[in-house]
Every structure is written in structure tokens, then in C-alpha cells.
Design brief:
By secondary structure, the protein is an alpha/beta fold. The protein has seven helices and seven strands, in the order βαβαβαβαβαβαβα. The protein binds NADP nicotinamide-adenine-dinucleotide phosphate.
Length: 267
Amino acid sequence: MRIQRGTRVVITGASRGIGRALSAELAGRGARLGLIARGKEGLEELAGELPDTPDGPHVTAVADVSKWGQTSRAIDRLAKNLGGIDLLVANAGVLDYAPFLEQELEEAERMVHVNVFGTMYTLRAALPHMLRGPGGHVVVMSSAAGLRSFPWGAVYGATKAFDRGLAEALRHELAGTGISVTTVYPGEYGTTILQHQRDRLPAWRSNDEERPVEELVEAIIAGVEDDARGVYAPPAVRVLGLSGIAPRLTDQILTRVRGRSAAPRCD
Ligand SMILES: NC(=O)c1ccc[n+]([C@@H]2O[C@H](COP(=O)([O-])OP(=O)(O)OC[C@H]3O[C@@H](n4cnc5c(N)ncnc54)[C@H](OP(=O)(O)O)[C@@H]3O)[C@@H](O)[C@H]2O)c1
């Protein structure tokens, strides 16, 4: 799908990080955006900064994607205001690293609610609108951790594997409808997702590894325009997909690249 003037986009988690940078790039290409997040201020500030479109203003909707009622109402309203949805970006997500048994149950539940139910609700609410149109594209934000889960990220990795599984099946299920699906597997990009726990990261994960989010945005846009199944950014993330067929080899590679804490058991 070509992203151009008139492309109607709904994006969740638009107010910060990847969602914000992607929104700016899409608006720069002439797309008209429906922006979703929980914080009203961040959304309005973003909408005010985006270049105007000749087709009408960008629209915002405050919603917590982990709540079905809020998500479906927000997406219905945005679809109505935009006159349809051509591109859906299910991006909203949260991350907390901790050893599994030490993690507050509430934190673990929050990741499941936002990353699992939130993605599912977003797609359930938006796809009926998209199926009424001439076709379109869906982007689902998984993670490198959705390919190979890491110590201290057991629940997060599992939620991102859910996102991968959902998107993989839908790409096939939607064959013949004119709607396609791309799954995105980012490595580590500099956003606000870890700002609440910069001082307690797992040993294999350091702030120094973070890459500029603009690089990821460029890869996502190319992935949509080329109808890629998956966007692996940086490209080396693709190696983690080996984990399904050669877990020991993947562990050995990770140990070399990230140290023993990324794969303490190489048996
Ligand atoms: N950054 C990375 O390196 C990285 C790597 C792999 C995958 N990812 C994935 O990329 C996605 C975006 O991450 P990011 O790094 O850009 O995060 P971020 O900087 O923390 O931004 C998250 C965005 O999601 C919104 N959000 C959070 N919870 C929400 C909820 N319940 N309902 C609606 N909106 C919600 C936030 O706004 P409000 O707080 O106002 O709601 C914010 O706009 C996530 O799915 C994440 O798992 C990120």
C-alpha cells in the first residue's frame, strides 16, 4: 500500500516513542491521522505539531486499549471522522522487566492487558471498518522479544509472541480481502518505554544499545509499502527467529553478543 496524501491512518500509542515518530512521518507524507492514547495532553500536543492535511484535521481519541468499550468507541469515532481506515497501526504497549517470581502481579497483568487484549481489541474494532473499504494495511507491533523471550522479560516476551501469532494468522485469514498485515520486530530503540526503570535493567539490556527511532520508522514505512510479512529492525533481529528451530545455536549467538545473562543455560 502506498502512503500518500489522503491515506487515512489510525494509530494507537501515538503520543510518545515509536507511535509519535511514526505519526510525524506519516503526516509529513500527507496522511490524515486518528491518534489514540490514554493521555489527552500528549495527543493534543502531537496533533498541534503535525502538518495540516488538505483533507481535514488530524483527530484524537483518548482511550485505554486494554478496555474493549473505550477502544471500540474510539475507533468507531475516528473511522467516522476520517471517512474510513486505510492503515491501522496497533502499536500501544508497555514493558516492565523483572525476574518472573519477583515481578508484581499487577505489573505482569498490565502487560497482558495492554499488549495482548489491547492489540486484540484494536484489531477487532478496526477491521470491520477496513473491510468496508477498498482495502488497506495493518501493522502489528511485536518485538524481538516476541521471537525469543529473554530472562526478566518472561511475561513481556509472551505478550509479544501473542502479537506475532495474531498477526501471522490474520495475514493469511485476510487473503483476498485487499487487507494485508505486517508484523514489526523492533530491537532496542530510544523511546520512553523504559523511563520508569532505567536504573533496574537486566544485565543483557543496557541503555547504550538503543537506536534512533527514526531508523525504525523508515523500516516500518518501507515494510507497509512493500507489503512485507515482517519488519526486522535492525536486520540482525531476524537471527532470533532461529530460536524456534535451533534454540541452542541462538543461545550461543546471544551469549556472544550480549553476554551470559542473555542465555545463562546453554545446555
Ligand atoms: N522501544 C523499543 O525499543 C521497542 C522494542 C520492541 C517493541 N516495542 C513495542 O513498540 C510499541 C511502542 O513502544 P514505545 O517504545 O514507543 O513505548 P512508549 O515510548 O512508552 O510509548 C507508548 C505509547 O503507548 C501509549 N499507551 C500505553 N499504554 C496504553 C494503553 N493502555 N492504551 C492506549 N495507549 C497506551 C502511551 O501513551 P499513554 O501513556 O498516554 O497512554 C504512548 O503513547 C510497544 O508495543 C512496544 O512493546 C518497543
